[in-house]
């Protein structure tokens, strides 16, 4: 049960005791299965969650928290009965909060979640779960150790359409066996700037809290918020921002979660054309050897080149995946999917609801039932899907200048790696960038021990150095044993 002592107080009408923890106005309207939420971060994504959870009966916004007082103030105006905090640790000490929504910068996701579960709170945490693979595993361990409900925000997992797709592909085998797969994230973005002097942090932001586990480095981009995605100190690039959604769909629908992590990873990419200070790639393409179905992913934030404002041409959806099968192909994306035969004729179409709202209801239902297995995106599932992104980013970070001879290392993939290499070569050429140049990095072929979640063999030492980051004092992610 959630906060059993509170419910017992209510059941026995011990108002004097309950009033210490709960304001009378809130207590008067609460039912025994009400869930009080606290929001850790009040930015754009958090506001989206507020809208979703606010629609669920018996869910109350009890507290809001953000180190940016302006953002926290706007949330407090939206929920005038909620308590307001700048420091998430004070929110976590609040016994009236049953569960938290963690929608912070990526580098805070795991530590905030672990602290919350240590404090007895259940957690809904945004994707990507982790900023490094090691801390993701500690978050899984914390959920098990403290017996907490922890849902990761890959909301498409709650779209009923996914079950229909899996039945079509695997039970009915309507297109035959799946032979290869491709994942796409083609979405145009712009540069984040390149300042001559460090960005001045506004006095309304408690910057020490904002940084948390990240290193205290001067910022030379134009904005503090959102563009942290494109700095490896705080974000995970497009691979962690959108790649995790489409790779999670791949794990769910193509592999039915049977593949934890790939056994080998090989990739290339670069940050080109923009001349900004971001250090995550804006063009990134990776091969995953799963031991069964070969997979590639292609991501780009650049336009097609020239005067175009659109993404370059590519097979399949701009944000989605393709399962190539013996008898055709299936193309899936958020909210819809379509199957084609080998002649390109549509065989079947699928329509979904994106999982919005449904995913939030699924979390609240699990909080009430205490049934971890009922979660559509339990922390372990989110950890492993995020892991594909973490490994892909490590491949980029271990790379050296691209050369075609080393790029031909992929064998037995039915040509999907070479095809995406040729596409990316043409795409980069449209921006006057040569594939074989210092601007594009190519990783070594990295071997993964999927059970231990570490690299092994050649080049493993340099790759393993990226599995766990160096944390600032007072903000270390703890090692959690179950």
From TrEMBL:
EC number of the protein: 1.1.1.18
Residue ranges of domain Gfo/Idh/MocA-like oxidoreductase bacterial type C-terminal in the record: 198-405
Enzyme class, spelled out: oxidoreductase
Domain Gfo/Idh/MocA-like oxidoreductase N-terminal: 46-153
Sorted UniProt keywords: Oxidoreductase, Signal
Range of residues in the leader sequence: 1-31
InterPro entries in the cross-refs: Gfo/Idh/MocA-like_OxRdtase_N (IPR000683), Gfo/Idh/MocA_oxidrdct_glycsds (IPR050463), Gfo/Idh/MocA_OxRdtase_bact_C (IPR043906), NAD(P)-bd_dom_sf (IPR036291), TAT_signal (IPR006311)
Membrane spanning residue stretches: none
Cross-referenced SUPFAM superfamilies: Glyceraldehyde-3-phosphate dehydrogenase-like, C-terminal domain, NAD(P)-binding Rossmann-fold domains
GO molecular function, one term: nucleotide binding
Official protein name in the record: Inositol 2-dehydrogenase
Organism field: Fuerstiella marisgermanici
Protein encoded by which gene: iolG_12
């Amino acid at each position: 049960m959630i906060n059993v002592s509170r419910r017992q107080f209510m059941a026995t009408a011990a108002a004097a005791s309950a009033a210490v923890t709960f304001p009378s106005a809130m207590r008067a309207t609460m039912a025994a299965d009400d869930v009080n939420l606290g929001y850790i971060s009040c930015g754009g994504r958090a506001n989206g969650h507020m809208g979703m959870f606010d629609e669920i009966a018996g869910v109350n916004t009890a507290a809001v928290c953000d180190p940016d007082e302006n953002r926290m103030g706007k949330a407090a105006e939206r929920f005038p009965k909620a308590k307001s905090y700048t420091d998430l640790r004070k929110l976590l000490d609040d016994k009236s909060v049953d569960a938290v929504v963690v929608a912070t910068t990526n580098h805070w996701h795991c530590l905030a979640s672990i602290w919350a579960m240590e404090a007895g709170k259940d957690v809904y945490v945004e994707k990507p779960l982790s900023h490094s693979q090691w801390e993701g595993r500690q978050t899984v361990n914390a959920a098990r150790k403290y017996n907490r409900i922890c849902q990761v925000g890959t909301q498409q997992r709650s779209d009923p359409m996914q079950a229909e797709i899996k039945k079509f592909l695997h039970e009915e085998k309507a297109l035959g066996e799946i032979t290869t797969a491709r994942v796409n994230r083609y979405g145009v973005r712009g540069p984040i700037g390149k300042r001559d002097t460090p960005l001045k942090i506004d006095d309304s932001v408690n910057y020490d809290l904002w940084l948390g586990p990240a290193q205290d480095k001067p910022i030379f981009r134009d904005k503090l918020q959102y563009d942290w995605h494109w700095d490896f100190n705080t974000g995970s690039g497009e691979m962690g921002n959108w790649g995790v959604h489409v790779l999670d769909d791949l794990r769910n629908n193509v592999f039915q979660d049977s593949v934890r992590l790939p056994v080998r990873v090989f990739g290339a990419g670069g940050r080109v054309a923009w001349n900004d200070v971001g250090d995550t790639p804006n063009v990134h393409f990776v091969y995953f050897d799963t031991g069964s179905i070969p997979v590639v992913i292609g991501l780009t934030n650049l336009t097609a080149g020239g005067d175009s404002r659109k993404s370059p041409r590519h097979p399949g959806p701009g944000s989605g995946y393709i399962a190539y099968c013996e008898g055709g192909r299936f193309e899936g994306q958020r909210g819809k999917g379509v199957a084609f035969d080998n002649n390109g004729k549509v065989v079947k179409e699928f329509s979904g609801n994106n999982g919005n709202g449904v995913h939030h209801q699924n979390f609240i239902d699990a909080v009430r039932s205490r049934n971890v297995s009922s979660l559509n995106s339990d922390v372990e599932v989110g950890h492993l899907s995020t892991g594909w992104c973490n490994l892909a980013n490590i491949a980029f970070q271990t790379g050296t200048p691209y050369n075609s001879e080393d790029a031909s290392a992929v064998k037995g993939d039915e040509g999907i790696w070479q095809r995406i290499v040729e596409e990316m070569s043409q795409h980069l050429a449209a921006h006057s960038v040569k594939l074989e140049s210092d601007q594009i990095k190519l990783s070594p072929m990295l071997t993964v021990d999927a059970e231990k979640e570490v690299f092994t063999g050649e080049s493993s030492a340099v790759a393993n150095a990226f599995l766990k980051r160096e944390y600032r004092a007072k903000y270390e992610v703890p090692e959690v044993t179950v």
